[in-house]
């Protein structure tokens, strides 16, 4: 568990690495599959793929930036009722190191609860867990491999890869607010 705290902090800092682009959200992803194959892919996009191929797989005209420090494509917006989806890659190799889907946030930091968000269509093959799912369902994704921590759950993947399920809510009524696939150490 102590090992997961830095990983969680690093994943969250990676999401914040590039400031939000325009305040108007971009269209949402329209992949050929909304399946989450935990802990390997989200919407048929895996870690290590090129950012361009990931963008093309998800469609939906994201906002993309290619910088020296990190390259990124975004669908939706952080403050949008539909939430935000993000793919980030190391620009030197153009290989994806982070894929995330996250509920939108109110100015006070609370999640925007929206069952109609296009991002709620993404669900795991096993357990059918996605954004807004009750937190108690997350262990069904992989009962033997999932690890619980204070902010949610972690599922180890290949190499340094991990899928993180962040939860929020009252102690007896938590729900999934973000799903992140990353291999960032």
Q: Can you tag this structure with a few keywords?
A:
4-stranded mixed β-sheet; 11% helix; disordered N terminus; 185 residues
Notes on the protein architecture:
This protein has 185 residues and is mainly β. It has one domain (4-182). 11% of the residues lie in helices and 33% in strands. It has two helices and twelve strands, in the order αβββαβββββββββ.
Q: What's the arrangement of secondary structure elements?
A:
Layout: H1 4-15, E1 35-37, E2 41-42, E3 45-46, H2 51-58, E4 63-66, E5 71-76, E6 84-90, E7 95-102, E8 123-124, E9 147-149, E10 152-156, E11 162-170, E12 173-182
Parallel strand pairs: 1-8
Antiparallel strand pairs: 1-2, 2-3, 4-5, 5-6, 6-7, 7-12, 9-10, 10-11, 11-12
Q: Which structural class matches the secondary elements? A: mainly beta
The helix-strand sequence is HEEEHEEEEEEEEE
Mean pLDDT, rounded to whole units?
87
Instruction: Write down how many β-strands occur, each being a DSSP E stretch of 2 or more residues.
Output: 12
- Span of the ends, CA to CA: 15 Å
- Shape, principal axes of CA atoms: globular
Strand content: 25-35%
Radius of gyration: 15 Å
Q: Show unreliable segments.
A: 1-23
Read across the widest sheet, the strand sequence of neighbours is: 4-5-6-7-12-11-10-9
Q: Note the main sheet.
A: 8 strands, antiparallel
Tally of structural domains: 1
Helix content: 10-25%
Number of helices: 2
